[in-house]
Amino acid sequence: MKTIDEHIKKDESEIQEAKAQGNDSKLHHLEDELNSLKEYKEHHPEDKHDPNALELFCDANPDEPECLVYDD
């Protein structure tokens, strides 16, 4: 995906497909991802790029060791 909006639309479409197929594990994964994307977009309204998994994780967990940034 090039933008977060494209990724959100794709996930919404895939959620409908997973519901129709009765694929609960895929549905749960996609719903979690969609919630993370929407939360990221809410926190960064000016940012249009499609965030990677680490960016989503650090947005939700800024105090985790892998998300801390140190100045030299």
From TrEMBL:
The record's annotation in InterPro entries points to: CP12_dom
Q: Taking every annotated instance into account, which residue ranges of this chain make up the domain CP12?
A: 4-72
**Start-end of Basic and acidic residues biased regions:** 1-17
Location of the region described as Disordered in the Swiss-Prot/TrEMBL record: 1-27
| Protein name as it appears in the record | CP12 domain-containing protein
Transmembrane spans = none
